[in-house]
């Protein structure tokens, strides 16, 4: 049995005061937005309760699907690294960046330079470090599972939170999925933007979700995990042998009385072998009137 925990979008605060040259148009809007609304929605005590609960579940590995920071100021990155280190070592925690981690053009290098060892492959079958998509996709093998990390993070204009994989990364992903299927591993794809259905909000969507779904339908995967929408969600993509669950989680720091789901995370229990994998997901989260996190649901995804 291999146990994986998945959390996302902690949006760690507080946002430090930007230097004057860091206050570009989009950052200025984001900074005001944080102080007007977001710091009420994202609470450190909610995140602390979640991390405490997750730790007591003692998972074998932890996946974090982006949006660790808010407006990608350089000063936001070292505390986010400390938070990652509190979750676990780079060997035990795999992350992919979100749109807030690459908020503006001058932040594009920050995730790799501060968190690079949490987003690095094992070696074989990983993306070439100097490819156009950087180190993505990366591949890590842990027990019966292979974690495949993708990046959809790119700087966008104000009011846009779109993401894109790009042709280069998609091509490498198809190679990785084929290779890992051959190895008989349980393939878990990590991606920040939800790829399963057409997003209702075109300003927040994954631009190449269609090509991603077609690729997954052709090459298969056992599980796709994402964040970005800050709600619990389950969708499916038809695959070559079985349909593939695509699961989203709320923001790991969401207050109980916010406008989206309160802080929560998922635990996956994986066992079996190629052709007869079993995977059960347990959702845990904050609930009004309950101290700490409680079990919200439990269901079999692959059986
Ligand atoms: Fe987010």
Explain what you see.
- It is a single chain.
- The chain is an alpha/beta fold and 303 residues long.
- The protein has one domain: Metallo-dependent phosphatases (Purple Acid Phosphatase, chain A, domain 2, 4-Layer Sandwich), CATH 3.60.21.10.
- Helices cover 25% and strands 23% of the residues.
- Helix 5 packs parallel to helix 6.
- The longest helix is centred in the N-terminal third of the chain and has 17 residues.
- About 3% of the residues have low confidence.
- The site of fe (ii) ion has 7 residues, from loops.
Short description:
The chain has helices at 25-41, 44-57, 77-87, 110-115, 167-183, 209-219; strands at residues 2-7, 61-64, 93-95, 138-142, 145-149, 186-190, 223-226, 233-237, 244-248, 264-271, 278-286, 293-302. The chain is α/β, with parallel strands linked by helices.
């Amino acid at each position: 049995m291999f146990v994986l925990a998945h959390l996302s979008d902690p949006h760690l605060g507080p946002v430090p005061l930007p230097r004057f040259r860091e206050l570009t148009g989009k950052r200025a809007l984001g900074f005001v937005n944080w102080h007007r609304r977001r710091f009420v929605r994202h609470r450190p005590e909610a995140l602390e309760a979640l991390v405490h609960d997750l730790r007591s579940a003692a998972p074998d590995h932890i996946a974090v699907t982006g949006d660790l920071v808010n407006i990608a100021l350089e000063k936001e990155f070292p505390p986010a690294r400390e938070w990652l280190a509190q979750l676990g070592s780079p060997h035990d925690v795999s992350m992919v960046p979100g749109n807030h981690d690459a908020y503006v053009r001058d932040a594009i290098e920050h995730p790799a330079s501060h968190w690079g060892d949490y987003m690095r492959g094992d070696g074989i079958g990983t993306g070439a470090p100097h490819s156009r998509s950087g180190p993505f996709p990366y591949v890590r093998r842990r027990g019966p599972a292979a974690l495949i990390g993708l990046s959809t993070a790119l700087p966008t204009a104000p009011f846009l939170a779109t993401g894109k994989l790009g042709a280069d990364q998609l091509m490498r992903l198809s190679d990785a999925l084929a290779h890992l299927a051959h190895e008989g591993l349980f393939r878990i794809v990590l991606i920040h933007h939800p790829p399963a259905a057409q997003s209702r909000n075109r300003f927040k969507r994954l631009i190449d979700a269609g090509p991603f779904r077609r690729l997954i339908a052709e090459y298969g995967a056992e599980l796709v995990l994402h964040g970005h929408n800050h709600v619990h969600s389950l969708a499916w993509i038809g695959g070559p042998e079985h349909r593939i669950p695509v699961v989203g989680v709320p923001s790991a720091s969401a207050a109980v009385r916010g406008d989206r789901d309160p802080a929560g995370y998922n635990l996956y229990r994986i066992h079996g072998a190629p052709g007869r994998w079993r995977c059960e997901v347990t959702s845990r989260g904050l609930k009004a009137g309950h101290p700490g996190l409680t079990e919200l649901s439990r269901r079999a995804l692959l059986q």
